[in-house]
Each structure stands twice: as C-alpha cells, then as structure tokens.
Amino acid sequence: MVDIPSHILMNNTWQQTATDFRQHAPVTMKKITSLLLITLALTTPVLNSCNVYRPVVKIAIVAPFSGMYREIGYQVLNGARIAVNEYNDSNIALTEIELIAFDDAGNPTQAQEQANKILTDKKVLVVIGHWLDKTTTAAAPIYMNANLPLLSTSAKPSNPNNAGTTFFRLHPTTKQITDEIERLRNLHAIYSRCNCNPYESAEFLESLQEKHQNDVAIGGPLWSLQTFNNIVGDKSEGSLFIVPAPEPMLENIASHFVVQYKTSYPEGPDPAWFAIHAYESIHLIVNTIQATEALTSKSFPQTLSEIDYHGTIGRVQFDSDGKWIEPQLKVYKWKNATKSLP
User: 15 versus 69: which is more confidently predicted?
Assistant: First the structure.
C-alpha cells in the first residue's frame, strides 16, 4: 500500500472486534460518525461519544503512486481524502469509512498483485481504480472472479465480466473518446490525433514536425498530464485533449473543491481532473451506501446499478452493461505550457 503520514494513522486497539463486512449481518445505514482514516494498517470500528461501536466500511483505491504516472496517484489520493473527510464529518450514517490506497506503479503485473492483496481484506466494500487502461484491464478479472465491485476509472477493458453486476465504469469508453476526438477534428480542422501515452505522443508529434505538417493535434486523457508536457516540450503548444472530468482550476463549477484542495494541500501542485474524479468517485459510493437499506456485498452493487447521482462531473447513471450513460467529455488545450480552455 501507499505510505501515509503518521499523523493520520490510528492504532488498532479494536482490531480483534472487527466486523467482517462480507460474512456478518447487514448494516442499516443512517448516520456517519466523524472519523477520517486512510491507513496502511487494518483497523476496526471505534467508540463514538454514545459508546456505540461503528462498523468500518473500507474503500480500496488503486493507482500509480510510483513510476511515470505517479502524478495521477497523488492527485487521486488527495481528492479521495477530501471526499472521505466530508463523508465522515456529515453525521448521516452508522459507518466509519476507511480509505486504503495501493500502488500499482502503472504496471499490469503489479496491478494484479495489488488486486490479490485487496481480496485478503474481507471488509473492502468496493475498489476504485486503476486510471490506466492496461492496469485496469489486468486487474479487473481478479475482482470480478471474487465478485468484488469495481468502479473502473479507465476506458478499458472493453467487455469485462460481470458488467453491470459488479463492474461499473465511471469513465467514457474508448469509442466515446474516439468519437469525440473525431468531432473535434472536424470542428477545429485539426487532422492529427493520437489517443496515446506521453512517449508515444512525443514520437507522434515529432513525426508531424518532420513531415512539415501542422503539429497541433488532439489527444486523450493522458495528454492532460504534466508528464506529457514535460516529455513533448513545446510540441504540446495548441494541442487539445479530452478528459472525463473538469479541470478544477479552469471551471467555476469546481471552485468549492479547489478551495478545499488548496486548504488541505497548500504546498502541493494545483488539483487536476484526476483529483476531482476521485473525489466524485467517493461521493458516488457514499450516495450508494446511503441509498442501501441493508448494506451487504450483494445489496451494494445492486443499488449502485440503480443510482442516479448528480455532481461536478454531471449526472451519473449506469446502463445494464455498467457503462456511464452520459459521461462527461471535457476539452482543454495546452497554451504556453499551461492547461487552458480551448
């Protein structure tokens, strides 16, 4: 898992009295107590002011916290932490939400290893991840075989097992991204496009320059990374990219989130769409928990399949295949090495 600063860890005094989420009786959802816990250790319900033990519901989040895509991981974790704080401070359910973070390093093999680790913790209600097509594709079958719900945050796998049952995609599909790229291509008369990773993008933009073609192009979500801009340099100038959530620094709808983020992480980089995507993923799960009368490993995904959530990422409903019915497709542009509105 990911190293978390010691000041937000709690001890495991109550570990021996833990409620095994998947094996014990359902929990009726009414209130949330005010504990934020993001930790590497197994922890258990705590004693509240009324001397009532609250069952822990764990949410696992998997992302690259090391390697080329590490900026995704820390944006994701920071956004998710803010949402967990809001949830646990709202006093509207009888659970403690615990967020546990796992590093897949953007590597499919490590993604599978982390997925198997998650399965050993029977209190995990749902997994959010992995933000890269290759890692989500590698790990998804492990969760599906165990009937552990996955809120997928990438375009692939295209045809997962248990789609609409325990697999739900909070991200546009590859086809939806490709169709939007084609629409923008025609709208802006930009005829070069590449829904590819930063290194492939650098080669692609270099080839356009060598052919003396217009090197302005359109790309997918990974073109939003600062890593992309660092690798391709000034070749990014004027290029458009498509993402499934607002860039918080550029959209008024995300102003409240930006204030929360900068207050929580004043020394860090500005929030990007990955942060608000993770933030909204947590709130989607929270709304599902609230809407589930008796929370079990079976009732939760059933409620998730029927959820109607509205947030800064728009309206979230899933079709029978677990696809986001009306996904956001936000468009931005690189200008002077900075992300801007198109």
Answer: 69
How many other C-beta atoms are found inside a 10 Å radius of the C-beta of residue 326? 9
Cis peptide before 130 (omega within 30 of 0): yes
pLDDT attached to residue 213: 62
Residues 6 or more apart whose CB falls under 8 angstroms from that of 132 comprise 64, 69, 72, 106, 154
Mean pLDDT of 222-246: 94
- The SS3 assignment for 73 reads helix
- 243, containing H or E segment: strand 240-243
3-state helix, strand, coil in the chain (%, to 5): 40, 20, 40
Residue 189: which pLDDT band, with cuts at 50, 70 and 90?
confident
Close Cβ partners of 278 (under 8 Å, ≥ 6 residues apart): 61, 75, 76, 77, 78, 79, 80, 83, 128, 153
Chain-centroid distance of CA 113 in Å reads 19
3 state SS of 170: coil
CA distance 142 to 150: 10
- Rounded Cα distance, 283 and 128, in Å: 12
Q: How far is CA 285 from the centre of its chain?
A: 11
pLDDT (0 to 100) of residue 93 = 55
Residue ranges of domains in the chain, CATH in brackets: 6-172+252-316 (3.40.50.2300), 175-243 (no CATH)
CA atoms within 13 A on the CB side of 281: 34
**pLDDT given for residue 271 in this prediction:** 97
Residues whose CB is less than 8 angstroms from the CB of residue 46 and which lie 6 or more positions away in sequence, other chains included:
10, 14, 33, 35, 53, 54, 96
Residue 17 has pLDDT above 50, yes or no: no
Looking at residue 35, its pLDDT comes to: 30
Q: What is the DSSP letter of 90?
A: S
pTM of the predicted protein model:
0.85
**Banded model confidence at residue 188, pLDDT cuts 50, 70, 90:** confident
